[in-house]
Amino acid sequence: MTFDLVLLLLVVATFVVAGVVKGVIGMGMPTVSLALLTATVGLPSAMALLLAPTIITNIWQALVGGYLQTIVRRLWPFLLASVVTVWLGVAILARVDVRWLSALLGILIAFYALAGLFNLGLGALVSRGRYASPVNGTLTGLLTGMTGSSVFPGVAYLQSLGLPRDMLIQAMGVLFVVTTMALGLSMGGQRLLSVELGLLSLGAVVPAIVGMQLGQRLRRRLSETTFRRIFLSGLLAMGLYLLGRSLLG
């Protein structure tokens, strides 16, 4: 991967956009950055680039809110399974044709967008059964390791629990922090994370924070419902593009 001015501008623009989305609706940075970067630099590099911005922008969300002990006590089987199986997912990433995992990422992004646009009620699907917590954690970790995305079924499972809004937001922050930290460690262990990518990921924190600040200002002027619909429509288009590009390219 060549590090030049075009790549730097691409990374800056991507994380400003992803930060704006997170600033408006409180989530979406990893999904947006993965969708945009995978289409240009490839899946493993995209996963490496999102590490520092995702961890740093979610640490505050994970620690602040007053529910951390409750979240850990209630969700530890889900969180533990998510962290442990990230390593297996990254092992698969290192050995499988990345084109198929890029197609899988496209499917996950498109499915998530469709579920949000048409209110498909994923909560009822992922919350059933006495072992729902470790099963959803296992799937979340595997898919995070293979594609970099913790959204499905992780976020859908958390939403299905009927948590108070502030506790749900904090729980999503905890999920994103622990899975992304595990992702970075496991990618390093598989030699998928170079020093150059790590430094570029750290540099991407600044545009991500700038984007979040812009998004928080925009939230006061724009209907969140309208913005969410635009966001999900854009994700659907990107997911379908990634899928088509992987299958046809």
How is this structure best described in words?
84% of the residues lie in helices and 0% in strands. It is globular and about 45 Å long. It is built from 13 helices and no strands. It has one domain. It has helices at residues 5-25, 29-41, 43-49, 51-63, 68-95, 98-118, 122-126, 132-147, 151-160, 165-189, 195-203, 205-219, 224-248. The longest helix is centred in the first third of the chain and has 28 residues, at 68-95. The chain is mostly helical. Its main location: membrane. It comes from Billgrantia kenyensis. Pfam families: TauE.
For the structure shown, list the relevant keywords.
about 250 residues; mainly alpha; 13 helices; about 0% strand; transmembrane; TM_pro_TauE-like
Map the helices and strands.
Layout: H1 5-25, H2 29-41, H3 43-49, H4 51-63, H5 68-95, H6 98-118, H7 122-126, H8 132-147, H9 151-160, H10 165-189, H11 195-203, H12 205-219, H13 224-248
